[in-house]
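Researcher: Please translate sequence to structure tokens.
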Amino acid sequence: MKFTPADELIDDVWGAIGTPERDAMEAQLKEEVYAYYVGEAIKNARLQNHLTQEELGVRLGVKRSQICRLESGKNSITLSTLSRVFRALGIPSGTLDLGMAGKVALW
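Model: Translation complete:
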């Protein structure tokens, strides 16, 4: 039986490190991970407010399915939508930490 290291499999599927294909795949993967974390934050805040997806959707003027896609990370979220969602959840302010460039108030 021959075992193939995971690094070799990844290189075969995504391309070698530093290639445009690999860089594009890694960038897409990062976006999906960030979307997942934002979705989890929305879901946790919604649950803390004892709201259903339907109720949050009504507050935002969107369908429950849109809330479901946001929470599951299947949709990328714009800053304006993020602001609307968290304001609807009663979160009074939000900031974006830009590291050495400082923090920016989002709403």
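Researcher: Any highlights?
Model: The beta strands are 95-97, 103-105.
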